[in-house]
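Fill in residues.
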C-alpha cells in the first residue's frame, strides 16, 4: 500500500513538472517533456515536502500539503500553457520503434543496477557496487534522520549539534517516501530508476540540441554513462593470465578497470582514477541523481536561448535556466558551483542583457541556500593550488591519456573540424573548458578526488561533441571508417562497461549491516526518542545509521571529506568508553542520551562495562 501511495505522489509530481515544460519549450518531443517533468517534479516535491516539514514536521499533514500544492498547480499551469497546444502535441505523437527498443534496454539495465543497491538477504543488508559500501551507510543516516528522527531544522546526523551543510534533498525525498509507507527498497528504487532514466533522455535531448544529429543524440548517453579510459587493456592482460574459462572469468572479474588500479605505460605507473559514472557517482553519490539532469537541462536551455531570434522567447528560456540553477544548491552543490563558474565566460562569449533573466532567479532562490551551506568548516582549505587532479607524481598529460583514452582526442577533432559542427556550436563549447581546467588546478574539496564532481559535468557536455564525431564517422560510406568508428566507441566505453558488468555479478555483493544490526536498530527506534543522541564506535556502518538517531560522532573519513575536524571529539569518545569520572563529565558535555556497547565497540575500544553496568 505504501508503495502505491508513493507511485501516486510520483505521478502527481511528474504531471506538474511536465506541464511546466509547455510554458517554456516548443517543438520538444513528449519523451523529453516527461523526462524533464520527472526531474523537475520530484525536485519540487522534495522542496515542498522539506519546507512543509520545517514548519510542521515530516508527518501526514506536511506530506498531504505537498501533494495538494502540486495538484493545485497543475490546472493553473495547463491554463497558462494552453490546453489546445498540449492536445495538439499529443495528437502528433508517432511511434518510434527504434526509440522504444533503445529506451527499453536502458530501463532494463537501470532496473537491474538499482535492484542491487539495496538487497535484503537472510544475513542482513547487502549492496552493490563496491563504492556503495562506504557511502550508503552515510546516506542511511541522513534518510532515517528525516524519516524517523524528526531532524528539522537539519543537524548533521553523524556529528550531533552541528548544522548539516550538505545537499540532502535527494535523501530527504527517500525519507519522505518512507514516511508515505514505502519500504526501504521501494523508496530507494523508485527515485533512482525514474531520475536515471530521465537523465538518459535529457542527455539525448541535450546532444540533439547541441549537434542537431539524431545518431549523436543516441550515442551521447552511452559514451557518458559507460565512460572509461584505457583500463580495458588491463582486462585483456588479466584474462590472458587467468586459468579460468572466459565465462567464469567474466563472472569473477578480479578488479575494476576505471578506478583504484594502476596502468603501466612504458616505464610509467599511472593511476586509474576517472571512475565510471554509474559505479562511482550516480549510485554511491546520490545527489548526482538531481545534479546531472538539472545541468543537462540548463545547458540545453542556454543553447536554445542563445540561438533564439525572438527576444521574448530568449528571455523566457534564460528565466527557466535561472530558476533551475537557483534550485540546485540543496540538490547538488557541486552542480550549482559548476553552473555558476561556466555562466560567467558564457555571458562574455554570447553577451546580451537578457542574461539578467538568468541571474535574478539564481540570486533570489540560491541566496538563502548559499547562506545555509556557507556554514561549512572547509572554506580555508578550498581553492588551494593542486595540479593535475589525481595525477600525483605522474605526468598529468599521460595521466589523462590513460584515464580519458580517446575521449579528449575526439573532442579536439570536433573543435577543429569544419564538419559536422558549425563554428557557433564549437564556440559555444569553449567556456565549458572551465569544468576541466579548474578541477585540474585547484582543490575544490578536502579530498582531491571529489574534484570529479565538477569534472563529470565537463564529461557531460563533451559527450555530445564526441558523439557528433562518431556519428559523422558511422554515416560515411567507407566500411573502413565504420569499423574505425566501432573501434573508437569500444575504446570509449569498454572499461566502463566492464565495471558496470562487475556490479551486476555476485563478485560485488557486499554486506553492510548484519541481521543483528537490523533487529537492534529496530529496537532502538522503538525504545528511544526521535531526537536522541547516541554514542557509538566511530565506524562508517554503525547500526545507528538505521535508527534515525543522531550520532555523537560518525566515521572520521566521512567527516573529513565534509571538512569537519573530529580529532578532539574522537578522543572524547574513546575516553567515555574508558569509564570513570571523566566519562561522566564528557557524557554531559556531549549531550549523550544513550551509549551503544556491542561487538564493534568491544573490539575497537577499551570498554569499562562494569562502570556502565554499575552507574547507568
Amino acid at each position: 500500500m505504501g508503495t502505491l501511495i508513493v507511485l501516486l505522489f510520483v505521478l502527481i509530481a511528474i504531471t506538474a513538472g511536465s506541464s511546466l515544460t509547455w510554458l517554456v519549450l516548443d517543438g520538444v518531443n513528449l519523451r523529453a517533456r516527461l523526462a524533464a517533468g520527472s526531474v523537475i517534479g520530484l525536485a519540487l516535491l522534495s522542496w515542498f515536502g522539506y519546507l512543509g516539514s520545517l514548519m510542521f514536521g515530516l508527518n501526514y499533514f506536511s506530506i498531504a500539503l505537498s501533494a495538494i500544492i502540486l495538484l493545485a498547480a497543475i490546472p493553473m499551469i495547463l491554463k497558462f500553457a494552453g490546453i489546445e497546444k498540449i492536445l495538439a502535441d499529443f495528437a502528433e505523437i508517432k511511434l518510434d520503434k527504434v526509440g522504444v527498443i533503445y529506451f527499453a534496454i536502458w530501463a532494463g539495465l537501470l532496473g537491474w543496477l538499482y535492484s542491487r543497491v539495496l538487497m535484503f538477504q537472510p544475513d542482513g543488508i547487502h549492496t552493490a557496487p563496491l563504492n556503495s559500501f562506504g557511502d550508503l551507510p552515510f546516506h542511511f543516516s541522513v534518510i532515517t534522520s528525516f524519516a524517523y528522527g524528526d531532524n528539522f531544522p537539519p543537524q548533521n546526523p553523524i556529528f550531533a549539534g552541528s548544522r548539516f551543510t550538505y545537499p540532502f534533498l535527494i535523501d530527504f525525498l527517500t525519507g519522505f517516501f518512507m514516511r508515505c509507507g514505502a519500504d526501504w527498497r521501494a523508496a530507494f528504487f523508485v527515485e533512482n530508476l525514474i531520475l536515471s532514466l530521465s537523465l538518459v533522455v535529457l542527455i539525448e535531448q541535450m546532444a540533439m540540441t547541441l549537434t542537431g544529429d539524431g545518431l549523436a543524440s543516441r550515442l551521447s548517453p552511452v559514451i557518458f554513462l559507460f565512460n572509461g579510459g584505457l583500463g580495458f587493456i588491463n582486462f585483456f592482460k588479466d584474462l590472458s593470465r587467468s586459468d579460468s574459462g572466459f565465462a567464469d572469468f567474466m563472472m569473477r572479474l578480479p578488479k575494476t578497470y576505471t578506478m583504484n588500479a594502476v596502468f603501466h605505460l612504458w616505464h610509467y605507473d599511472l593511476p586509474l582514477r576517472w571512475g565510471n559514472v554509474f559505479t562511482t557517482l550516480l549510485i554511491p553519490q546520490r545527489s548526482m541523481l538531481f545534479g546531472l539532469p538539472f545541468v543537462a537541462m540548463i545547458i540545453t536551455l542556454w543553447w536554445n536561448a542563445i540561438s533564439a531570434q525572438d527576444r521574448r522567447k530568449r528571455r523566457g528560456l534564460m528565466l527557466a535556466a535561472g530558476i533551475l540553477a537557483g534550485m540546485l544548491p540543496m540538490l547538488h552543490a557541486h552542480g550549482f558551483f559548476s553552473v555558476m563558474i561556466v555562466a560567467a565566460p558564457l555571458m562574455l562569449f554570447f553577451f546580451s542583457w537578457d542574461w539578467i533573466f538568468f541571474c535574478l532567479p539564481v540570486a533570489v532562490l540560491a541566496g538563502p541556500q548559499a547562506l545555509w551551506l556557507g556554514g561549512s568548516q572547509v572554506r580555508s582549505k578550498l581553492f588551494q593550488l593542486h595540479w593535475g587532479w589525481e595525477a600525483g607524481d605522474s605526468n598529468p598529460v599521460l595521466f589523462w591519456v590513460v584515464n580519458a583514452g580517446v575521449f579528449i582526442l575526439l573532442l579536439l577533432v570536433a573543435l577543429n573540424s569544419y564538419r559536422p559542427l558549425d563554428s557557433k556550436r564549437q564556440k559555444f563549447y569553449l567556456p565549458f573548458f572551465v569544468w576541466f581546467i579548474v578541477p585540474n588546478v585547484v582543490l575544490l574539496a578536502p579530498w582531491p578526488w571529489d574534484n570529479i564532481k565538477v569534472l563529470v559535468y565537463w564529461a557531460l557536455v563533451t559527450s555530445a561533441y564526441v558523439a557528433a564525431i562518431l556519428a559523422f564517422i558511422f554515416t560515411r560510406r567507407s566500411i573502413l571508417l565504420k569499423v574505425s568508428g566501432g573501434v573508437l566507441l569500444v575504446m570509449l566505453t569498454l572499461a566502463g562497461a566492464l565495471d558496470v558488468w562487475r556490479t551486476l555479478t555476485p563478485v560485488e555483493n557486499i554486506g553492510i549491516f548484519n541481521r543483528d544490526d537490523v533487529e537492534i536498530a529496530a529496537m532502538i527506534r522503538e525504545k528511544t526518542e526521535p531526537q536522541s543522541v547516541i554514542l557509538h564506535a566511530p565506524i562508517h556502518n554503525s547500526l545507528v545509521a538505521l535508527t534515525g538517531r543522531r550520532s555523537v560522532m560518525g566515521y572520521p573519513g566521512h567527516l573529513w571529506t565534509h571538512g569537519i575536524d573530529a580529532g578532539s571529539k574522537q578522543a572524547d569518545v574513546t575516553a567515555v568508553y574508558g569509564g570513570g569520572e571523566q566519562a561522566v563529565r564528557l557524557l554531559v558535555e556531549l549531550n549523550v542520551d544513550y551509549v551503544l556497547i556491542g561487538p564493534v565497540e568491544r573490539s575497537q575500544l577499551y570498554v569499562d562495562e562494569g562502570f556502565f553496568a554499575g552507574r547507568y
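The beta strands are 119-121, 124-127, 261-265, 268-272, 510-514, 533-535, 550-551, 594-595.
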